Amino acid sequence: MTRTVYVNGEYLPENEAKVSIFDRAFLMADGVYEVTSVLDGKLIDFDGHSKRLERSLNELDMPKPEAFDELLDIHRELVKINEIQDGMVYLQVTRGAPDDRDFVFPDPETCKPTVVLFTQNKPGLADSPVAKTGIKVISIEDVRWGRRDIKTVQLLYPSMGKMMAKKAGADDAWLVEDGFVTEGTSNNAYYIKGNKIVTRALSKDILHGITRAAVLRFAREAQMEVEERNFTIEEAQDADEAFITSASTFVMPVVEIDGKPVGDGTPGTRAARLREIYLDESRKAAI
Ligand code: PDD
User: Fold this and answer.
1) Tens digits of per-residue pLDDT, 171-226?
2) Which atom of ligand 1 is nearest to the CA of 33?
3) Is the pLDDT at 1 greater than 90, yes or no?
4) Burial class (CB in 10 A: 0-12, 13-18, 19+), 180
């Protein structure tokens, strides 16, 4: 089925949608994005994604697109037109397309942001069989730029990280800086030891995951202890359980790190429980 996508105020078949070759995101990765998951035809954590988008735009002095207040409607319309039950809505806002390539930001009065949204259909997204077996990760050096809290479209290194993982027979990579894990290539990283969840504290070093915020809240409500601090790969390897979170994977158990099994090498009960709680609560709050 040809998807209907949204580009700058228009709903178009995907093969008719166009963006200029001078678009700042194409030439300079000068764009930000959000991925919102859809379960049962409803948006998960839309408000959190919308707030983070606003923050990303602010941090980069990027003008807020005129369509900002319509974004919820546009998400819903695309979910409806494309008959998405389970999947994702990808949203990208760029600094727009000036007349020529130039490092200097274009005048926001004349150069309006580019806004693109499209859906990704993923039937059974929440019942992924991978959640039952868990994933294997490798560790790689974190060589990304210093503002990882801004959700920019500079995804070359995360993409290379996933390829390095694939080549090593693993599913994903955890990024390590100065001996400490920052996050996964496209997710936040955690381990569990006893009743305690350990994950890196929020700073410019990591993306402030929307799923992270919800999962830590649910964990605390379930009387688990949460410690937000730096941790090493060795600590995570010696833990009882490990997991990642993101809008597209929810809570996903990690069963192996750099070839070493975590716990008994199968998904742990606590991560499985957190996944269940997250999915239940998110479905209830979905809009
Ligand atoms: N990635 N850290 C990084 C580097 C990410 O790219 C993501 C999200 C997360 C998790 O954030 P959230 O819980 O808000 O999805 C953490 C999205 C899913 C992606 O790039 O497809």
Assistant:
1) 999 999 999 999 999 999 999 999 999 999 999 999 999 999 999 999 999 999 99
2) 20
3) no
4) middle
Give yes or no for residue 142 CB within 6 A of ligand 1. no
Asked whether the predicted pLDDT for residue 68 surpasses 90, the reply is: yes
Hey, which of 177, 188, 206, 215 would you mutate to test ligand 1's pocket, going by the most ligand atoms within 8 Å of its Cβ? 188
Buried b (16+ CB within 10 A) or exposed e, 237-269: bebbbbbbbbbbbbbbbbbbbbeeebbeeebbe
Could you give the residue numbers annotated as active site? 151
Name residues whose C-beta falls within 8 Å of residue 8's C-beta, 6 or more positions apart in sequence. 112, 114, 115, 116
Tell me how far apart the terminal alpha carbons of the chain are, to the nearest angstrom. Answer: 25
Model pLDDT, residue 169: 98
Mean pLDDT of 253-280: 97
Q: What is the Cα–Cα distance from 3 to 13, expressed in whole angstroms?
A: 6
pTM above 0.85, yes or no: yes
Q: Give 150 Cα–ligand 1 centroid separation in angstroms.
A: 11
The dihedral formed by the CA atoms of 245, 246, 247 and 248, expressed in degrees to the nearest 10: -100
Regarding the beta carbon of 34 and ligand 1, being less than 6 Å apart is answered: no
